[in-house]
Each structure stands twice: as C-alpha cells, then as structure tokens.
C-alpha cells in the first residue's frame, strides 16, 4: 500500500512540475546516494566490498525523513532533478558516508561531496532547467507534499541496509 501511495504522490508532483518543464521524466527506481559514482577495476570489486562490509557492520538501523522538495542539477549542468531532501536522519547518513569515504580513500577514489544534500530523486530532464522549477513551481510541489494524506508516514524511510552496485551486481550490507 505504501508503495502505491508513494507512486500516487510522485504522479501528482510530476504532473504539476510538467506545467513548468514538459520534458520531465519520473524516475523508475529510487535511491539515496552515499557516494559519487566511481569506477572500480575488476580486481578491486571483492576487496572493496569486503572493506565496505567491515566498515558498515557496526551501524544500527534507523529512519530518515525525506519531505523537502528541492531542485538539483548534476555537476556539469547537463541534467536537472526534482528530489525530496532529507530533513531528519542527516547525522546518521553523514556517519555512513564517513565510513564509505574511508573505503574510497583506501582505493584512491573520490570521496562524497563535502556538504551533501541527501535526497531521493523523483524526476529528471536534460539540461539546466532549474530556474523554471524553482520559485513558484517548487512552492506548489512542497504544498502537494505537505498536504498529501499520510505523507509524514509515507516519506519516513527505513534504513535497514546499504547497497552497492558494481556493474550489474548488487551487494547488500544489512544494518544491525
């Protein structure tokens, strides 16, 4: 039921935002990033996964709340995203990032952004169309989220695992 309601909220948000940017596409999958995308050499995958498993083992499950609508662009401004920023659980996410960063450093890979805005991307479009989506559009989208029945429950995200994707393989690290 929660997933259906979330998709209903997503639908409302995307159709409202399309009044401002018609080329918006809803995301098919949802995640919250704890690292930048990096390239792992094939022979690094196993030791990288082992190091992550070891670093994340002591972490306990927690909840975060992603309920603040925000507009993002990627670093080179070729894509614009509408996302739900985390308003509660930021500290726990920073602790996880700190451990992920330590593993990345062991492999001389780039660490996460210094002041991350933890968020779940909901929709995207090509180009930097952030000016069209900020202001009035953003206020309307936030009003939809704030007024959506059960949004407080719906946007409370349980963290019981961290996942790592390498190529077409997923690795899961359960939290305690």
From TrEMBL:
<keyword id="KW-0540">Nuclease</keyword>
<protein>
    <recommendedName>
        <fullName>U6 snRNA phosphodiesterase 1</fullName>
    </recommendedName>
</protein>
<dbReference type="GO" id="GO:0000175">
    <property type="term" value="F:3'-5'-RNA exonuclease activity"/>
</dbReference>
<dbReference type="InterPro" id="IPR027521">
    <property type="entry name" value="Usb1"/>
</dbReference>
<keyword id="KW-0539">Nucleus</keyword>
<keyword id="KW-0456">Lyase</keyword>
<dbReference type="GO" id="GO:0005634">
    <property type="term" value="C:nucleus"/>
</dbReference>
<comment type="function">
    <text>3'-5' RNA exonuclease that trims the 3' end of oligo(U) and oligo(A) tracts of the pre-U6 small nuclear RNA (snRNA) molecule, leading to the formation of a mature U6 snRNA 3' end-terminated with a 2',3'-cyclic phosphate. Participates in the U6 snRNA 3' end processing that prevents U6 snRNA degradation. In addition also removes uridines from the 3' end of U6atac snRNA and possibly the vault RNA VTRNA1-1.</text>
</comment>
<keyword id="KW-0378">Hydrolase</keyword>
<dbReference type="GO" id="GO:0034477">
    <property type="term" value="P:U6 snRNA 3'-end processing"/>
</dbReference>
<dbReference type="GO" id="GO:0016829">
    <property type="term" value="F:lyase activity"/>
</dbReference>
<dbReference type="Pfam" id="PF09749">
    <property type="entry name" value="HVSL"/>
</dbReference>
<dbReference type="InterPro" id="IPR009097">
    <property type="entry name" value="Cyclic_Pdiesterase"/>
</dbReference>
């Amino acid at each position: 039921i929660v997933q259906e309601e979330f998709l209903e909220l997503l639908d409302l948000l995307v159709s409202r935002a399309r009044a401002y940017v018609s080329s918006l596409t809803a995301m098919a999958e949802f995640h919250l990033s704890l690292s930048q995308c990096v390239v792992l050499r094939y022979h690094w995958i196993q030791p990288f996964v082992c190091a992550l498993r070891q670093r994340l083992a002591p972490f306990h499950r927690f909840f975060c709340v992603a309920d603040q609508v925000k507009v993002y662009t990627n670093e080179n401004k070729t894509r614009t995203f509408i996302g739900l920023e985390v308003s509660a659980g930021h500290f726990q996410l920073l602790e996880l990032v700190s451990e992920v960063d330590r593993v990345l450093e062991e492999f001389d890979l780039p660490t996460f952004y210094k002041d991350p805005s933890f968020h779940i991307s909901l929709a995207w479009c090509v180009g930097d169309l952030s000016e069209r989506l900020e202001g009035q559009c953003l206020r309307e989208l936030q009003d939809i989220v704030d007024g959506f029945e059960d949004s407080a429950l719906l946007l409370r995200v349980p963290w019981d695992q961290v996942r790592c994707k390498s190529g077409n393989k997923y690795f899961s690290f359960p939290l305690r």
